[in-house]
Amino acid sequence: MSKFESLLDRVAGSDAPDMADILALLNASGAQTQALYRRADDIRRARMGDGILLRAIVEFSSRCSRDCAYCGLRKAHRQLKRYRMNTAEILASVLEAASSGIKTVVLQSGEDDTLDPFWLADVIRAIKSGTQMAVTLSVGEKPQEVYALWRGAGADRYLLKIETTNPSLYRRLHPDMDFDRRLECLRVLRELGYQTGSGSIVGLPGQTAEDLTQDILFFKRCDFDMIGIGPFIAHPDTPLGLEGDGDIQAVLKVLAVTRIVVNNAHMPATTAVGSLEEDHRLAALKSGANVLMPNFTPQPYRQAYEIYPHKRCLTETSGACVPCMETMASAIGRCVNYSRGDSLKIKV
Ligand code: SAH
């Protein structure tokens, strides 16, 4: 067996893999890279199956109170058109997703300090009483009481990406936020019984391979139910607008090594992976990912939710994503799985 294959065996078989081993996998080149992707794909098939889960995303508000250096929704981006969908609009989008056969909706927005938690609790209750949908929230850092309120209203899951586990890089990118508070939010979410997702951005200016290694070890230690990994995409109206985009091979490697290390988390082929010059979501699905996220944000809001530029499917109408995803799945000999796709780690 080649040295690289035994390295893969060692990392796949360990509960606390060695930092040097992970770094060596991230440094794979040439034929090693293909062996890395193949191993991640084998582990994905064995643990998660061949079905590709669909999570409908509804980007219900572009309002944001934070100033993340990379994000187009940052509050300093004053030209951005801000919107918040009303309850009826959100429910219509969720019903449209439900009628496509989808059983999970992700409600995402900027981190809006003026968002009324009781209003969102009512929206969650309306979705839960009118549909069979699992509800996932992705609305940023909130006090424990608010997370508890939403959980009580029926929210099942929460996504809060750590973005980077390097505390000094985190501080530089998030001038008005606190790394420890984000960790604390993730702890509280798990304690409240949310299926919890985190994740990272790959290719952030100043980020090193050691940082990416620490991100993967963090995902392993926290045993997240879901892990989203995507490239940094430079937004011209942010302080990082002149930086280069993240490298797709680096993203695919982090994805593959994460699948090998944390074998049982749900991992999307993110929209960001699909929004570089080419769409790389098929490559992500062949390197460990098992989830796609069709966009059900209606126009004109969809175009206003500009986290990064050239976002995939920006001008399409809601519902167009699902047939496209069916085609993507069959192109790689897989199929779409229309189940809720709960965490493998919990009994629901
Ligand atoms: N406000 C919410 C999530 C909304 S943004 C929160 O705080 O959790 C959703 C995700 O988009 C972020 O977690 C971040 O990882 C990603 N993102 C934002 N700007 C990006 C950029 N320029 N390139 C790549 N990913 C970006």
UniProtKB/TrEMBL annotation:
SUPFAM superfamilies: Radical SAM enzymes. Its cofactor is [4Fe-4S] cluster. [4Fe-4S] cluster binds at C64, C68, C71. Signal peptide: none annotated. Residues 50-270 form the Radical SAM core domain. GO terms for molecular function: 4 iron, 4 sulfur cluster binding; metal ion binding; transferase activity. Keywords: 4Fe-4S, Iron, Iron-sulfur, Metal-binding, S-adenosyl-L-methionine. It comes from the Bacteria. Pfam families: Radical_SAM. (3R)-3-methyl-D-ornithine binds at S138. S-adenosyl-L-methionine binds at E163, R182. InterPro entries: Aldolase_TIM (IPR013785), Elp3/MiaA/NifB-like_rSAM (IPR006638), FeFe-hyd_HydE_rSAM (IPR024021), HydE/PylB-like (IPR034422), rSAM (IPR007197), rSAM_sf (IPR058240). Binds 1 [4Fe-4S] cluster. The cluster is coordinated with 3 cysteines and an exchangeable S-adenosyl-L-methionine. PANTHER family: 3-METHYLORNITHINE SYNTHASE, BIOTIN SYNTHASE. This is [FeFe]-hydrogenase maturation protein HydE.
